[in-house]
Design goal:
single chain, alpha+beta, Rna Polymerase Sigma Factor, Chain: A, 2 domains, 14 helices, disordered N terminus
């Protein structure tokens, strides 16, 4: 389903209001009209960059650039198109200036090993879901088919910047090749060629070819996650291992270490002290990230009075077992998820 875009000469009441606010220098009115697109622009920038913090910064930069260039908006294209063009260029400039590159995969590594993307961050599901979803929301359809799972985001980071942008604009947001070409400074033919190369690359990437995560249903999923949480809070290593796939994948961005195999991973956790009294007690808070369940883990050391932020685990479930755990430092992401620094 293609998102409707007004024709080049078709003005909407919103576009008329933006033009009027721009001409009058009415910054509050201009900001109110453009702010409606923050949610979908942030998700768009995140897909290109793989970093929640960077996507926040780039959306703010987009709005600042829009205000400074307000006189150039004359309503010939839609406000949404205009903002996406600014956001696309801001992201491409950021990628060019940051020289942020992922290392090519080592051919000697097992293909199931998670790829390493140091800047990867989780994205709160609460920011993907509008407070009152519906077609009246400007971003409702844009986020409707948003594929934003971590494994897919990692695979995107290995694409050249313009291929990545073309793929997100056309495949995820349903822009036409002609529209994407105007954003990217390319011809429609060049965009189509970029799409073909990007799709071919993703077909060969083990991260992008993983089966979809399980849809257990709300009740079964809740019971499964409660077992996982209770096992942590009881420090029951065997109970945790029982819900893990034997070919479990584990990674900890930005650290380069990545592991495959339940037994080896659990053994490494135990060797690090997990499950012992010296390690301390844990409390967990359930949430969700990148359309996957997530667990915020807090730890109270022996003799301590409060549980301090420790880890943030994003869980990928296949069948009825956890197939992948991507762990982040909780302090680095908790504000985005509205999580406290500590628990009593």
């Amino acid at each position: 389903m293609r998102v409707h875009e007004p024709a080049q000469n078709e003005r909407t009441p919103e576009d008329e209001a933006v033009v009027a606010a721009a001409r009058q220098g009415d910054k509050p009115a201009f900001a109110e009209l453009t702010e409606r697109y923050r949610r979908e622009l942030r998700a768009f920038c995140y897909r290109l960059l793989g970093s929640f913090d960077d996507s926040e910064d780039l959306v703010q930069e987009t709005f600042l650039k829009a205000w400074r260039a307000r006189e150039s908006f004359e309503g010939r294209s839609s406000l949404r198109s205009w903002l996406y063009r600014i956001a696309t260029n801001a992201c491409l400039d950021f990628l060019a200036s940051s020289r942020r590159q992922v290392l090519a995969r080592d051919p000697n590594e097992p293909p199931e090993l998670p790829a390493h993307v140091p800047w990867l961050q989780p994205y709160p599901d609460a920011l993907l879901d509008p407070p009152a979803p519906g077609d009246a929301e400007p971003d409702a359809r844009a986020l409707e088919k948003e594929r934003i799972e971590l494994a897919y985001l990692v695979a995107l980071q290995f694409l050249p910047a313009r291929q990545r942008a073309a793929l997100v604009l056309c495949d995820a947001l349903d822009w036409s090749a002609k529209d994407a070409a105007s954003f990217l400074g390319m011809t429609s033919a060049a965009v189509n060629a970029s799409l073909q190369r990007a799709r071919a690359t993703l077909r060969e990437d083990p991260s992008a070819r993983r089966p979809p995560p399980s849809n257990l249903g709300s009740e079964k999923r809740r019971e499964f996650l409660e077992r996982y949480v209770q096992a942590h809070e009881r420090r029951d290593v065997d109970a945790i291992a029982a819900v893990l796939h034997e070919d479990l994948r584990f990674s900890m961005p930005p650290q380069p270490e990545r592991y495959v195999g339940r037994d080896a991973i659990v053994r490494a956790w135990v060797e690090g002290g997990f499950g012992t009294e010296e390690f301390g007690d844990m409390r967990c808070v359930l949430t969700s990230a990148n359309r996957l369940p997530a667990v915020a883990v807090y730890r109270r050391r022996p003799g301590g009075e409060r549980y301090r932020a420790m880890a943030f685990d994003v869980l990928r479930i296949e069948g009825e077992l956890i197939r992948e755990v991507t762990t982040f430092e909780l302090d680095a992401v908790r504000e985005a998820f509205g999580l406290p620094e500590e628990l009593p």
